[in-house]
Specification:
This protein is an all-alpha fold and 393 residues long. It folds into two domains: 2-154, Helix Hairpins (Orthogonal Bundle); 178-346 and 361-369, no CATH class. It is built from 14 helices and no strands. The longest helix is centred in the middle third of the chain and has 46 residues, at 132-177. The radius of gyration is 29 Å and the shape is elongated. Mean pLDDT is 86; it is low at 378-391.
């Protein structure tokens, strides 16, 4: 019996320490399916999703989903600590460590209590180790507890720094591509500002963003559950919009080079596919329902109205379909799993950007007419100044 108890204790301790190492220290994706952290998120996310489905109010629904990421992180840290404490309690019991008040041997609950005070380095002194084995286990457990505390203190700032880096570009996407963002709105607004040639630099920035997203979310998968500040934004929606925009540019838009769009598309798809493997979510069958033939015709018409000519060769429509098939099955399955709605290809009618609304402007959002006037205003000097400049000396 003592051998079995000791074996269980060793398995608890080594299993948790290895899981902590893979989750916090190891800077790469772990493909092994049997992991404490993976099992924890699998068993907690499913009931959380089920409860959220019963919440009819959209804002409360999103708020409930939004707290899962931070709460699950704290809960996982608690599970790690409890498992280590329980493991050392089993070891003390197996070794008959003679832990108790004065020198009397206590029960398993006494061992558990002593293990907890040792792990958190409380040193209360009401129970004390009497044998050499008990003293050795006390030193080892206190060291592990102190080390895990130090790792957690360093882990949380890194985690929230990665989250902040992710959200900065997503927030900037609001004014450039609408809320929720769409590829058509992105191109339209750049064209209105006569900044369509600058889209290459924008795609370069998003290539770096996708690379950072892949590195941070593979190292810290819990970030996938962290939701954006606004209900109509998410890292998945932003990634989908970037891939949509790259696809349109790669199919062919007059006056726009394709090279940077290809680089950004490859990086964004790489991030998308690798992140989907974290949750073992197989891509769904691509049915093309996100952009039907009628919607594609409307997309062309909206772009043409802004003098953005999308390639209309016989093979262009097939090329766009092939590009979509490379990433939409992954965005769709992640959208269903994480409950993060995907934006469409076409902008919503009467949709307001996040910057245009507040708690005091819900019914009458701020318009962008002042900005349009500034864009349309001629960048010339006043007539009086021109007259003075042209006046002969």
């Amino acid at each position: 019996m003592a051998l079995l108890t000791g074996t269980i204790g060793v398995l608890f301790i080594t299993g948790v320490l290895w899981d902590v190492f893979e989750t916090i220290v190891l800077p790469r994706r772990v493909t092994r399916r049997i992991r404490l952290a993976r099992l924890f998120y699998s068993f907690t996310w499913r009931p959380w999703r089920a409860i959220s489905a019963a919440i009819s109010n959209q804002r409360r629904h999103e708020a409930f989903l939004g707290i899962y990421g931070p709460i699950s992180l704290l809960a996982l840290l608690t599970v790690w600590a409890l498992c280590v404490i329980l493991g050392f309690a089993f070891l003390h019991t197996a070794l008959n460590s003679q832990i108790g008040p004065v020198s009397n041997y206590g029960s398993f609950l006494t061992d558990l209590y002593y293990s907890g005070t040792t792990f958190f380095t409380l040193g209360l002194g009401d129970v004390a180790p009497q044998g050499a084995a008990a003293r050795a286990l006390t030193v080892i457990e206190a060291s592990i507890g102190f080390g895990m505390l130090a790792l957690v203190m360093g882990y949380l700032p890194v985690l929230y720094q990665a989250f902040s880096r992710r959200e900065v570009n997503i927030s900037m996407l609001d004014a450039r591509a609408g809320s929720p963002p769409t590829a058509v709105e992105l191109l339209r607004r750049h064209q209105e500002a006569q900044a369509l040639p600058n889209l290459d630099q924008w795609l370069t920035d998003w290539e770096r963003w996708a690379a950072d997203l892949m590195e941070s979310h593979l190292s810290y998968p819990v970030l996938c559950f962290f939701r954006s500040q606004h209900d109509n934004q998410s890292w998945l929606a932003a990634l989908s919009t970037v891939l949509d925009a790259c696809s349109l540019v790669m199919v062919g838009i007059d006056g726009m080079p394709k090279w940077q769009a290809q680089l950004t598309f490859k990086m964004a798809r790489h991030a998308l596919v690798d992140i989907s493997q974290i949750f073992n979510t197989s891509p769904v069958r691509h049915d093309g329902a996100r952009l039907t033939g009628e919607q594609l015709a409307e997309l062309r018409a909206q772009l043409a109205a802004r003098e953005i000519i999308l390639g209309d060769e016989p093979d262009d429509e097939k090329a766009l379909e092939d590009l979509r098939a490379l990433y939409e099955p992954y965005t769709q399955v992640l959208s269903e799993y994480l409950i993060m709605p995907l934006p469409g290809w076409l902008p919503r009618t009467r949709a307001s950007d996040n910057w245009q609304t507040s708690a005091w402007e819900i019914r009458a959002p701020v318009t962008d007419q002042p900005f349009q006037k500034c864009l349309l205003k001629k960048a010339h000097s006043p007539a009086s100044v021109q007259t003075a400049l042209n006046k002969p000396k």
